[in-house]
Design goal:
With about 160 residues, this protein is α/β, with parallel strands linked by helices. The protein has 4 helices and 6 strands, in the order ββααββαβαβ. The chain has a 6-stranded mixed sheet, sandwiched between helices. Strand 5, helix 4 and strand 6 form a beta-alpha-beta unit. The two termini are about 25 Å apart.
Length: about 160
């Protein structure tokens, strides 16, 4: 039993009551234009604008691998922009996903979810364009979130 609820659906339309925190993985280049972020931007302009500003002003903030930006999209919905991939292309150094950065980001997500009293909702983070594998990501979610009593729902789209 992983402690994670798996559903078919759209993580940008999270199920359930109460405050919801939608988590997804971003790259460290400031790029926002493929994958799950497109669904986020179709629903709310705020997370993309905030991420682009965060990257643009990175010399004066914490932007980088493992960092998380929390953006309130609606009264009861927050989006967590987790910087968990180095670049955007698979190359000589392997796939873009950085599991240690996702792990560090999830630790920050856990603290924010506890502060907000929120449940956490996500696609299979780090496993799309970032090139990661779910058997490597799922234990990080279990350790950082589920073990702290935070409800997690993972959405498989289509």
């Amino acid at each position: 039993m992983s402690g994670i609820t798996y559903v078919q659906g759209d993580a940008t339309a999270p199920q359930g009551k109460g405050v919801k925190l939608i988590v997804h993985v971003c790259n460290d280049l400031g790029g926002w234009g493929k994958g799950f972020v497109l669904a986020v931007s179709r629903r709310w302009p705020g997370p993309e604008a905030a991420y682009r500003r965060w990257h643009r002003e990175r010399s004066g903030n914490d932007f980088g691998l493992g960092a998380v930006q929390f953006v309130q999209a609606e009264r009861y919905i927050w989006v967590a922009n987790v910087v968990g991939q180095r670049g955007i292309r698979t190359g000589a150094k392997g796939v873009p996903v950085r599991y240690e950065a996702i792990d560090a980001g999830l630790d920050k997500v856990a603290a924010k979810a506890a502060e907000l009293g929120a449940s956490v909702h996500m696609p299979r983070i780090g496993c799309g364009l970032a090139g990661g594998t779910w058997p490597r990501v799922e234990p990080l979610i279990t350790e950082r979130l589920v073990s702290r009593g935070i409800d997690v729902t993972v959405y498989d789209h289509g």
